[in-house]
Amino acid sequence: MEQVKIMLSEKELPQRWYNIQPDLPAPLAPPIHPGTHKPLTPEDLAPIFPMELIKQEVTMEPWVEIPDEVLRLYRLWRPTPLCRAYRLEEALGTPARIYYKDESVSPPGSHKPNTAVAQAYYNKQEGVKRLCTETGAGQWGSALALGCCLFGLDCTVYMVRVSYEQKPYRKLLMQSWGATVHPSPTNLTQAGRSILAKDPDSTGSLGMAISEAVEDAASSEDAKYSLGSVLNHVLLHQTVVGLEAKEQLRIAGEQPDVITGCVGGGSNYAGLCFPFVKDKLDGRDIDIIACEPTACPTLTRGAYRYDFGDTAQLTPLLKMYTLGHSFVPPPIHAGGLRYHGDAPLMCLLVNQNVIEARAYHQNTVFDAALTFARTEGKLCAPETAHCIKAAIDEALKCKETGEEKCILIAYSGHGFFDLAAYEQYFANELEDYEYPQQSIEEAMKTIPVVDESPGE
Ligand SMILES: Cc1ncc(COP(=O)(O)O)c(C=O)c1O
């Protein structure tokens, strides 16, 4: 009989996270202090992050133990299933075998709580009482709301205004787990007030919401800041996904030839692909494809430079592909893919040609989501739809060449809170949008110039 789901038992849950840093093909450029332009010290980060996460940010240990309390909470939804998409394969008429690692089964419906519960745990350990964060699509805000709820912490979420208005149900989910949610920009922070002074109707951006959350945390005695993507420790926590998938594929007698995932800040895809990146660096031939929207083409058209993580220039400078910290995204629906930068670890691997980046227009992406929903039954998040599109393209290539490849998809979340986007798609109201080159060039002029010569 066809086995659709490959499950692991609770006992088989990975006990350690995989740290890619010692295996990188080139050294990772250090984060830089926004004022001095010198590499950051742990003390610089201490006002906003707990020490254990700061250590994880720079550790060169290849494995990091997952604390027992985090493992206990992971068991609420982990291990997640690895599913074989037989019906999609049949519909495409492809000889490829398609698998997807289903992170949509978590309580908030995505991969995000894999790091949220870990971050809440380390903050609780160090006596923090409240966490502040930003959220775009609302997936990260709801994951952190859950993490804080499970550890008895307060949670303040700055939600990009356009998403707050488009997705009232995400806000209610966060409130159900006890979080306080503000539409950003607000007049509660200096950063928010100065944005509103220039543009009272600002629809917000992740960069703006980050500025507000960082300012709130840095100016409160017992609060810290929590980021849902981009940073090394976040990607580290997400590797539980890839480690499980690797074991599940081993049980199925498979090794992936192609892996696709969507990239907003890089966390879900890094989580799935990093354990396989290690295999590629060790010589296995794997196409690792990172997918993003043409409306926010960070990896495909951004510059590989140091830039701020936020609009108000409060965060450290990170070396990454960037569209410029002043980027205000067009309001396309894949809210989680609207960030101007990406994880430095992911960017380095793209820069070293280990990971390939592709950008897609949103209508083709929704076509792919519907093909998936009408074969596999599951309605994915618009973010996830980007890598379903790439997987379908790859499977159709196999149909032409007759190659029997194994394709693995990072199924990062469900789309039940994104039905307004599907409604627009059905009404032919979704616009395909190519981010203008001129806007990228203008934004580049506002990026600080950092001397990257050796010895810096
Ligand atoms: C379902 C889903 N997938 C992907 C992303 C993109 O984030 P990341 O690249 O950090 O995984 C988001 C972000 O909100 C998301 O909600």
Task: Offer a quick outline of the entry.
The protein has 456 residues and is of the alpha/beta class. It is 41% helix and 16% strand.
List keywords for this structure.
alpha/beta, Rossmann fold, four-stranded parallel beta sheet, binds pyridoxal-5'-phosphate
Kindly describe this structure.
The chain has helices at 42-45, 51-58, 68-74, 86-92, 113-125, 139-151, 161-166, 168-176, 190-198, 206-218, 232-252, 267-281, 298-301, 344-351, 362-376, 382-401, 419-426, 437-444; strands spanning 5-6, 16-18, 63-65, 82-84, 97-102, 130-135, 154-160, 180-184, 223-225, 258-262, 287-293, 303-308, 317-322, 356-360, 406-411. The chain has a seven-stranded mixed sheet, sandwiched between helices. Strands 8-7-6-9 form a four-stranded parallel sheet, sandwiched between helices. A two-stranded antiparallel sheet has the order 2-3. The chain folds into two domains: 21-63 and 112-225, Rossmann fold, CATH 3.40.50; 78-109 and 239-444, Rossmann fold (3-Layer(aba) Sandwich). By secondary structure, the protein is of the alpha/beta class. The chain is globular. Bound molecules: pyridoxal-5'-phosphate.
